[in-house]
Amino acid sequence: MPLAAHPFATRRANLAWALSSLFPAIFLLGLFALTFRSAPEHDDFCFSDLYARHGFIQTISIIYHSLSGRVVALFLSQIPTAISEAANVSLLSAYSLTLIACAGLFLFASAVATIRAWPRAGALQVTFLTLAFASTVVGAAPSLRELLYWLAGLTCYVPPALLTILILGECVRALDTDTEFSLPLTIAMALGGVVAAMCNEFTGLWLLLILAASLLARHLFGQPRQIAHHGLIAITIAVGFVVVASASGNSTRMEQLPNAGHFLPSLFNGFRDSLIGLGRFFREPAIIVSLITAGAIALIEPEPARPASANDKMLAFGIAAVCLACCYFEYSAHQYATGFRLVERAQNQALILLLFGSMLSIRLLVRAYRLPLRARLSASGGLLGPVALPAGLGLLMIASLGLSSTSSLLCRQWQDLDPYWQESLARHVLLTTSQEAVVAVPRHTWTPSLLMTSDVTADPDRLPNDCIARYYHKSAIHVADSPR
Q1: CA–CA separation, 333 vs 130, rounded Å?
Q2: pTM of model > 0.90
Q3: Which pairs from 454-462 meet CB under 8 Å and 24+ separation?
């Protein structure tokens, strides 16, 4: 007899899914709450000073011609100062509010991407899957600080990562359901694509590769290719890429890096580093649990309108290939541009794409082998039971997040977070109220890497001292225990 005929059993199953979602939700909310312990650092003060003197547009122009063409990131990095001046609140408060808003948008975009990718799953299953995806990203992030707690770092990589998975999800959804892009969806993808492309130098090429793969898959599957729709999206993305890549600040920055610009070593080192990153990806327990969750929910989804076909397997492997190619390109392009291994804040973007793409691939593969998998799991003791499945997934999620890199870091530094915030607040009060033109600033005695990576130095003429001094209208600041 179907489950719907047993209201009590249905309520028990719903309760099991709700309880299983509780721990990843608490995990996320606890880490989101730490944004109220974040404080601006080095680049943040540079953006704040430039905004206070020049405003949004001229600040973007100055940095575009001198340092970087990442227009969207340059705009977003000025928001805390704009809030501070408009609402007459301290920069620290405006900074925390901006970060919590970014965290909320991260969770919202994750939910939209998951809902669109699992259209037949129930609301509670999609909720659990969304929380599993978001908490896994946070738990396995190569740099949690630059994912949630440092605005200048997250603006370059988190927004384009989220927009990329949304566009990838829409391409896969259209291929999977044999539907076409509507005009509103095409316009939305084009706008999202150009915004993502103007966040950094490689996302535009990521998106062009995804669109090319979508067009090729439509051709192979005998579906309407919609060349005009794909072309419109691609053109807008290409415009965003050209805006970023043509910035004069890019060449200026590369000239300051002696190891940059070596093509063949970049290909080799990018391959080596991407393999290291892939190994780290699969060593995170939460990654494995999220993939298991994606497959389990695919097993219990209602039967699709069309039977599984060879296209499902081909599409699953195609998604994996595209995501791996994008990640390799990111590693090698960064190696070429800087001469160094991909920085951890950029690895956050690779993690988000690779995890979401892997979950899509698992869903399609599980659906392709749905009948034998269901038969085997049903015969093994009711693992797919309406209560046993969510309970089992919930316990796995608790264990995996407890063993994650983020949990280990948080346990080591938990007691340092509040003292660090108190010292940051005291420094802000000192610089705001002092009447001296030259101010001696004490170093942080509490230095949790979760929230900070650098401090003021003995040199008043270099970053971050110079930007901090200009923002607070001082001639100079120096470390209290160093000579002037």
Answers
A1: 31
A2: yes
A3: 454/41, 454/42, 458/482, 458/483, 460/484
